[in-house]
Structure formats: C-alpha cells, structure tokens
Amino acid sequence: MTDARQRPGWHLDQWLAGQTEQRQAQHLERKRRVLRANDPAGLQLDEETLINFSSNDYLGLASHPDLVRALKDAADQDGVGSGASALVSGYREQHRLLETELADFLQREKVLLCSSGYLANLAVTNSLTGKGDVIIQDKLCHASLIDAARLSEARLLRYTHGDIEALQRQLKIEKQGNTLVVSDGVFSMDGDVAPLQELATACEKHGAWLAIDDAHGIGVCGPGGRGTVAAAGLSQQQVPVLTGTLGKAFGCFGAFIAGSEALIDHLVNEARSYIYTTAMPPAIAAAARVALCHVVEDEWRREHLQSLIQHFRSGAQTRGLELLPSNSPIQPLVIGSSEAALNVAERLQNRGFLVVAIRPPTVRKGTARLRITLSSAHQLTQLDALLDAIAGELEHD
Ligand SMILES: *Cc1c(COP(=O)(O)O)cnc(C)c1O
C-alpha cells in the first residue's frame, strides 16, 4: 500500500502554497486593503487620500446622512440582527414596507427581498429550473448567474455577447421542459446594455421566460431611475423576473426580485437561497426605504451622473484613450495583460486615484482592464485629473 503522504503536496498548506505561486506567476493574485470612506467620492488608505473610481455607489447615497439616521433609528427600535430566516421569525415590518414600496416603484405586482444579489440569482434560477429544462445566458452574464445555472440541474447554453441570432438558434433546440433566458441589464464589466426588446420578442416567440438582472441599471437609468427594463418599455409580462441589488445605486445592502404575485409566492416556498439564510437586518431595510425616496426624488443625481459620463467619454477621446462603448457609469479601458493592467492601476494609486484592475477569470484572458466607475458624488475636475493621469501613465509605456 502506498502512503498518501508520499504524494507531493499532500499537506494542505503545501498545496495552497503551490496555488499561490501559480496565481502570482500569472499576475492573478488578489489582495484586500483596508480602506476608510472619508467622503462620498474619497477613501483613505493608510496616510493616503484616494479619489474612488471603483465603487458601485453610483448615486453617492452610501454615506448620505438621511440613510445613516434611518439605520440608527431603526436599530434602536428593532436591534441589529433579524435572528432567523424570513420564513421562521426574521420577517419584519421594515421588510414588508420596503417590498411594497419597491413593487410600486418598479411597477410590478410584488417584490421579495433577498440577503444579496448573488443569493437572489440563485433563488430565481434554482426555483424555476431543474432537470429537463434549459437555461440560456449571455456569455458575459455576471458570475452569480453562471454559478446559479451550475447549481441547477437544467442544461446551460450560452450565446455570444448580445448576439440575438445565436440566442434564437438556441431557442429552437428541441426540448421537453421550460426555458429560462437570463441576461444582465447593464453588463457589469463592460457597461453596455443588453438588447432587451429583442430579447423579449425572441422569448415571447419561443415561449421562453425572461429574467433580467438589472443590478447596475435600477436607480441609475430609465424613467425615474427604474432601470433598463423600464427604459426599454417592457412590462411584467414581457420580463416576468426582474432582479436588482440594494448594494449599488441604493448605497445599502441586500437585493430584491420583482414580478407577479404568483412568482413571489413560488420563491417564498421553493427558493433555497431565500429560505435557508438569515433575513437582512431590518435596519438595513429601513435605510433602503430612505434610499428609495432619494432614488425617486433626486433626479439631479442621475442628471449629474449623465453629464459626468459624457464629460468623461469626450475627455477620453480628446486624449486618445479608447474606452469600451458604454453610456453607463461603468467605463472600462481595456489594457490587455493582467500585469500591465496591475501596473497602471498601481501607478494611478500613487497619484491618488483608486481604479481597480479587473483581470481573468472575471474578464476574458487578454482583456484585463481598468474598470472606472463614476458616481454622482464626483466632480468634473476629478474626472479631468484622472484622465490626465491615465493618459500620462499610458504614454510612458
Ligand atoms: C453586483 C452584482 C450582483 C450581486 O449583487 P450583490 O447584492 O452584491 O450580491 C448580481 N448581479 C450583477 C449583474 C451584479 O453586478
């Protein structure tokens, strides 16, 4: 009998060291840094002050005094933890009110709060599909949607990014069960918007269900901030499943699924990632209710954000920087290799800008990029300073 311990790397730490070495050699190692938020657009890293171009706090609400006050007041009333799953004893009045208000806002029958967008996507995919069904996703769908499909026993098909004809070919494939078509509204690493009307038409024609994850759209774009689905004029019937997060434009935490009453009832009964996890703290729901008021009322935040986006894009063009086509606050500049992207990001940090390099497997190999995100908390002059710094750094290469 051979001793398993003779095998190289049998010891966990030894195996892990090998993994680390591989990641480092490929410039794919990830590190966390402790950052302190000092103002809506700024961060403190040790002694350094950085302007933050890597946050999804698109409307600058995360540190808004009204949200902070709501959180504190609700914690005084309800405490901190919800103490249990929503189905056991964790469902509170603040949750119910937020669900109702979000449903009104999104013009959907009902809303279900989830503890995160990742869990919301698991909930949708796994309660609506199983053996014999088919899930069809855009190839650039968010990692949480890919993981959700992997967890389902349904067959997963993926089409080339935005390619409706490829989707239609997949919709024609013979199948016994149901078909769920899934796409991001705004794509998280590219910033472009899915062809939603075409998706809805194709799904209608082939009797498929359409689920849109509008994590980066709701609050940011569309009429009254209702996102890409509302911007495309699509109803609950055309997009029966709509998910969003409270962690981005809402500046809070948690997520939601919006749709028909029947859909929400089904999720409450069947979605394991909803049932078997602790309900979000009620004080977070209270803060999100106040965030929703600002999302609805503060049209100026979206207007300012739009003017920042236009200013950034024209400034990039003037300086010869080629951004991906995007009208969202996600403005990616593809660098190429992970090493080069990391280098530029580090030099930008030395100049006082936090712009994180996004590398594989988050994006395709050879397309490592600076993912610059804009927030209504930014000022035009900060954008000019960043653009000058990027142009200066890339010129040195
Ligand atoms: C951020 C994001 C999520 C995850 O949302 P969380 O609430 O942060 O878990 C899901 N889908 C997309 C497209 C995202 O960008």
Keywords:
Aspartate Aminotransferase, domain 2; 397 residues; Aspartate Aminotransferase, domain 1; binds pyridoxal-5'-phosphate; 15 helices; alpha/beta
Task: Tell me what you see in this structure.
By secondary structure, the chain is an alpha/beta fold. It has two domains: 29-59 and 299-396, Aspartate Aminotransferase, domain 1 (Alpha-Beta Complex), CATH 3.90.1150.10; 65-297, Aspartate Aminotransferase, domain 2 (3-Layer(aba) Sandwich). The protein is 43% helix and 17% strand. It contains 15 helices and 14 strands. Strand 1 and strand 2 form a beta hairpin. The relative contact order is 0.16. The model has no long low-confidence stretch (mean pLDDT 96). It binds pyridoxal-5'-phosphate. The site of pyridoxal-5'-phosphate has 14 residues, from helix 5.
Strand order of the largest sheet: 4-10-9-8-7-5-6
* Strand and helix order: HEEEHHHEHEHEHEHEHEEHHHHEHEEEH
What share of the residues does DSSP label as strand, in percent? Answer: 15-25%
Q: Which structural class should the secondary elements be placed in?
A: alpha/beta
The ligands found in this model are: pyridoxal-5'-phosphate
CATH overall fold name of the largest domain: Aspartate Aminotransferase, domain 2
Helix content: 40-55%
Mean pLDDT: 96
CATH architecture of the largest domain: 3-Layer(aba) Sandwich
CATH homologous group name of the largest domain: Type I PLP-dependent aspartate aminotransferase-like (Major domain)
Count of individual helical segments: 15
CATH class group of the largest domain: Alpha Beta
The overall strand count is: 14
Low-confidence stretches: none
